[in-house]
Amino acid sequence: MTGARTPAPLPLFATVALGWLCLGVSSAFAVPTAWPDVSVKARISSAFGQKGSKICAAWGDGNDPSLANFKTSHVVGLYDWTVQKPSAADSLGFDFWPMLWGADEDQISAFESTVTAGYGTIILGFNEPNEEGESNLDPFTAAALWQQYIEPKRSLGYKTCSPAISSRPNGLQWMQQFLQACSGCTIDYQCLHWYDVGFSGLQTYLEENHDTFGLPIILTEFADQNFNGGDQPSLSDVIAFMQQALEYFDNTDWILAACPFGILFPTAGVTNNNALQNADGTPTELGTIVINDEY
């Protein structure tokens, strides 16, 4: 989500691991033959994916110096929905994750010229391609774009994270079709977004995707936010949700990173109770809990 939208509620799918064949997902795309060894991969921080260091920053303030307020030992990754790396990202010790947001020619041109060897560590795939208000790509077009522009960057040392589907019910099928179409694609991690109310829904969503696709997960956007009508969670509700989520992330080895939405002021698309940044650039109460991994 890079702006306000209204996703449909998350369905209560049966969580079953039937395997690729039963799901109709071909093995044409390449899954690494072993889980990525995050402690030794070149240029990726040794803390990436480790308990206590699974927070990532979904950053929306460009080169603002307040970025320094959000770097702790718990916060490893950083992205900003583009390929433009904040000027202080390297000196602060972030792993930068450039994104090819969609199919716009200017975005592709910037991606091609900017994402060079050593510029970042993990390439993030398209932003909510199953959403009409976001990158809005059918799975087959997305697969062709991946093959043409993202896959070749692996030769420069990049790891790759799948297109980030939203938690709308059509997301699971979209990802299945993308993987079927993406012959020769190598995907190290699955990127996901989630917006709804209550930790149990988030847990169900993550476990369903992991059971289905078997990939380590980077949750690149999430918030305790009601887009389906009715009351919004109170600040105390949001804090309780976040603390449950942080503990779950730390204790789940296949969740490598999670980026609450979003570090920007003013907030966009979510209530102020989900805000991570104050007007003066300092962390809010919720932001302080997040960057210090407090639960």
Please characterize this protein's 3D structure:
With 295 residues, the chain is α/β, with parallel strands linked by helices. The chain contains 8 helices and 8 strands. Helix 4 crosses helix 5. The chain is globular, with a radius of gyration of 18 Å.
Distance between the termini: 26 Å
Shape: globular
The counted number of beta strands is: 8
Mean residue pLDDT: 89
Rounded radius of gyration (Å): 18 Å
What percent strand? 5-15%
Summarize the biggest pleated sheet: 3 strands, parallel
Backbone structural class? alpha/beta
- Parts with pLDDT < 50 across at least 5 consecutive residues: 3-24, 33-42
Order of helices and strands: HEEHEHEHEHEHEHEH
Q: Considering DSSP H and I runs of 4 or more, what fraction of the residues is helical?
A: 25-40%
Total helical elements: 8
Q: Widest sheet: strand order?
A: 1-2-3
Short structural description:
The chain is of the alpha/beta class.
Question: How are the SSEs placed, and which strands pair?
Answer:
Elements: H1 19-23, E1 55-58, E2 75-79, H2 89-92, E3 95-96, H3 105-114, E4 122-124, H4 139-150, E5 159-161, H5 171-181, E6 190-196, H6 199-213, E7 217-224, H7 235-250, E8 255-258, H8 285-291
Parallel strand pairs: 1-2, 2-3, 4-5, 6-7, 7-8
Helix pairs in contact: 4-5
